[in-house]
Amino acid sequence: MIRFTQNATCLILLIALFGCAGLENGFETPTVGVRSFRVLPSDGAMPQFEISLHIINPNRTELKLVGLVYSVTLEGHKVITGVSNDLPIIEPYGEGEVMLLASADLLNSIRLIATLLKSQQEKFNYELEAKLDIGKFHPRIHVVDKGDIFLQGQTSKDSW
Asked: How many CA atoms lie within 13 A of 41 on its CB side?
């Protein structure tokens, strides 16, 4: 009886392992890029931002986005962090947009302003980091976009 239980357990584990391996077969990581980053009019002391991400699904099955975690760092200060679960389904071989509304962190924004006032620089660097959750059977998609923002109206090759 013990031998039968051990064999049955091994068989169930093998079936589960091969079943999960079959789910990953042929899955290509979607492409995610920053489409826009805008400052919105705000009634409060801290500005509101609209971040648009463009997602391309290169797979033959739809992409059901479960959640998204993101952050924006300016000159080494993480000024925006947020999450979203109001996300579209991207059709097979399709494209979609994700709009994120975010507000700045007060203390880190003050630190950023102090840094900019001390250095009197004409540009500062940014980094947008996003993690898209597409379900339990797939790893999160990690996206990082870096570049420079010029205060005098110039733009860098990587700017938003």
From this structure: 0
Q: Is 1 helix (H, G, I), strand (E, B) or coil?
A: coil
Q: Would you kindly state where each structural domain of the chain is located, as residue ranges? A: 27-150
Tell me the C-alpha distance between 135 and 55, whole Å. 16
Residue 51 has pLDDT above 50, yes or no: yes
∠ Cα 146 129 29 (to 5°): 100
CATH superfamily of 27-150: Immunoglobulins (2.60.40.10)
Helix, strand and coil content of the chain, in percent to the nearest 5, comes to: 25, 45, 35
Kindly report, residue by residue over 56-68, the tens digit of the pLDDT. 999 898 888 899 9
Q: How far apart are CA 153 and CA 37, in angstroms?
A: 15
DSSP code, position 158: T
**CB–CB of 143/129 below 8 Å?**
yes
Whether the per-residue pLDDT at 88 is higher than 80: the answer is: yes
